[in-house]
Amino acid sequence: MIGYKTLAVPGPTNMPFEIRQAMDVALEDHRAPDFPDFTKPLLNDLKGIFRTETGHVFLFPGSGTGGWEAAIGNCLSPRDTVLTSSFGQFSGLWVDMCNRFNLNVMNYDMDWGEGVPLDLYRRRLEADKHHEIKAVLACHNETATGVTSDIAGLRKVLDDLGHPALLFVDGVSSIGSLEFRMDDWGVDIAVSGSQKGFMMPTGLTIIGVSEKAMAACAKATTPRCYFDFAGMAKMNAQGYFPYTPPATLLRGLRAAVDMLNNEGMDNVHARHNRLAGGVRAAVDAWGLRNCARRPELYSDTVTAILVSPGTDANDIISIAYNRYGVSLGGGLGKVAGKVFRVGHLGWLNEAMVLQALGGVELAMRDCGIAFTAGSGVGAAIEHYTDTRIALPLAAE
Ligand SMILES: *Cc1c(COP(=O)(O)O)cnc(C)c1O
């Protein structure tokens, strides 16, 4: 293929040149006396991204899925009760993992396109007078359906009821892109990975752990070794790791954290909201529907677009890739063939979104789908024009 491929999946995301360059370094001695000079500020600055002062942020070689396992392995014991909900591939897989760890899983199986059911959680927690529920799980941003759930609202439910359960949040496709406030929201476990909002290669589990979760580790009896928080905390306090850290990735992560902080997290969130607005405008213009059921659930990092009955979304995806080098996200699980997804997170600007939307239009045309060529791209341009004012120029 001539020219760039367009990476419009919701992770891995586009990797900035600064991050690539930061990783183009010789391998280094992770036991060197000056290694902590690098690691300590990095771990500290990550806490800023998670918006926690009281918690820890740990880095394990792994991915988001490893973070789910670390949460369960460290904080819970077999047969502990957990309150969960599944409404997409990722929320569902974490629930599946809970079952494999022999937890007592109370799951709400929701329609795909819905989010964390706060009212149902409230009822169940209210009925739990003896506090059998040890952890409440929530997928902040369901990447399969493009649904963002209300974690602040979930914290309020727990607080209203005075329920002491730990709050475990999957923030793999939200942290670093969407507003995420670990301390303010009383999040005990915040799971992320390197290849989405952090704009990095896959390979790091990035996990926020509250003091309350650390205390729970001491009592929990599930065996843990590689993902042991206590061992990690002990070594991190000295600026080291219990085993060989992926130091090259940590160099990239340093650059990623600097980029996010230079932009400012509030600006990062605003940019994601604005870019997402263009994608949503395109979906409307094409006469298609967002898989997320209601506007308040619409994700600013990924949009899952429902195709009309009779269309196979996989045809759009394969033509986009094979003819135009545009990678779109596929429909996972229950929505396979019914949706295609456009990722709009990470290192991204308006023109990059328009490129992806243009690729979608080319592929939809080739599939014989009826719509006015340029209507989606045009609607996105209108949106970016209307919301331009407060934003700095790209060259700045
Ligand atoms: C990508 C993703 C995961 C899985 O993370 P891996 O890094 O692929 O292990 C989990 N949850 C959500 C919401 C995701 O988007």
Question: What can you see in these coordinates?
Answer:
The structure is a single chain. A 7-stranded mixed beta sheet has the order 2-10-9-8-5-3-4, with helices on both faces. A 5-stranded mixed beta sheet has the order 1-13-14-12-11, sandwiched between helices. Strands 6-7 form a two-stranded antiparallel ribbon. It contains 13 helices and 14 strands. It is globular. Helix 2 (35-50) packs across helix 9, helix 9 crosses helix 10 (265-285) and helix 11 crosses helix 12. The protein is an alpha/beta fold and 396 residues long. It has helices spanning 17-22, 35-50, 64-75, 89-100, 118-127, 151-161, 211-219, 229-237, 247-263, 265-285, 313-324, 350-366, 375-386, and strands at 6-8, 56-61, 81-86, 104-109, 133-139, 141-142, 147-148, 166-170, 189-193, 204-209, 289-290, 302-306, 326-330, 339-343. Strand 6 and strand 7 (147-148) form a beta hairpin. Bound molecules: pyridoxal-5'-phosphate (PLP). Pyridoxal-5'-phosphate binds next to helix 3.
Percent range for β-strand residues: 15-25%
Mean pLDDT: 97
Judged by helices, strands and strand pairing, the structural class is alpha/beta
Q: Over the alpha carbons, how many angstroms does the gyration radius reach?
A: 21 Å
Which segments are poorly predicted (pLDDT under 50) over 5 or more consecutive residues? none
Strand order of the largest sheet: 2-10-9-8-5-3-4
Q: How many strand units? A: 14
